[in-house]
Amino acid sequence: MTDIIIYVHDLRSSGVVRDAIRLADHCAERHRVTLVAGHGDGFFREAAGQGRHDFVALCEGCRSPVAMKLHAAAAFRRWLAGRRPSLIVSMGNMGHATPFLACLGSRRHARVYRISNEIARGDGLRGALRTIWMKTLIADAVSVPLVGAALARNPIFAEALADGRAVEMRSGVDLAEARDKAKAPSPHRWLDEDVPVVLAIGRLRPQKNHELLIAAMARIDRPARLVILGGGSEEERARYTTLAATAGLSDDRFLLAGETDNVFAWLSRAQLFALPSRWEGSSVALIEAMAVGTPIVASTLAGDAGVVLDNGRYGRLFGGEDPDALARAVEDQLSDRVIRPGDRASAYGSPDDAYRALFEQLLAAKTVDESSMTRAVAELSSN
């Protein structure tokens, strides 16, 4: 078994999709790799079809979230029929249902589910159902890479970590590539002006807690501008624009900049990167900011941000849902009291080699039998 299939739910701008495209190309140096998108819509459609790997979009057009997954699962099952046994790597939590359903009742294709977002969010029934779903995925998988230290602390993964089915993986970026992309021309005039820019990165979703950052920016005493990079629907964009206007952030202080294929051109010129997320696994954007030396403010709720920033040694942390605390942290980071990330990014280089080593251990087992796959992963985690 030498084929690797890397699966993503869609091609909208996100860290998961960027990671998947980069990893597919990296693994294609040695293996037959196909990047499969359940739905071909999104900002990274063109990038997904470039490089050494093959690319397949199973479905086109928008549907409800549940219908999207069911439709993609049926299409994926048909696409897999008759193919040689493969290692299927599902890259993001949003998409795991599709390969699970597509392979239901079959062990022909071994499944790897990469868990990249927090499971325990304190949201009652939904959280309980999410836990049941995660246990189902663990039982179905030959390996479960956990992105970041925060996820690895969740008791739900304890048994899988102990027997080697789960493996902790760090987020990371290619530092040389980050610094090269940072040299691109300035993407917006604000970045070349004297008023400091506070930059946030992430889809316009409740998880990212952009509304807290808007409230905090309205409280700071010094002139500053807020830019949010990330995709969202027209309704979401309208909501955040209204929130900003209501908070007192005028058009010359607030910008929804949309999606980009080069976050480093923005990060390297911003005075501050803010990560106010309510939950994360391990934020790639946080490490991207460190890679180009941008000062950071991060929520203690944002996954392993506290670990990455070494409890405040490489950036400021604040208590999660307090706009006043966030405002104070922003003001400190825009002052001569700034805490800079220094060389911290050197500890978070690209994880692609580690992922490829994991996949090659699984491929070396030459069978989809769970016992031999589990032994291979256990050997990797003990190295």
TrEMBL record:
Which CDD domains does the record match to this protein?
A: GT4_GT28_WabH-like (cd03811)
Q: Which residues form the signal peptide?
A: none
Q: Write the record's keywords in alphabetical order, separated by commas.
A: Glycosyltransferase, Transferase
Quote one Gene Ontology molecular function term: glycosyltransferase activity
Start and end residues of each Glycosyl transferase family domain:
192-337
Transmembrane feature ranges: none
InterPro entries for this protein: Glyco_trans_1 (IPR001296)
Pfam families reported in the protein's UniProt record: Glycos_transf_1 (PF00534)
Q: Which domain of life is it from?
A: Bacteria
Q: Which family does it belong to?
A: Belongs to the glycosyltransferase group 1 family. Glycosyltransferase 4 subfamily.
Q: What is this protein called?
A: Glycosyltransferase
Query: Which organism is this entry from?
Result: Sphingomonas crocodyli
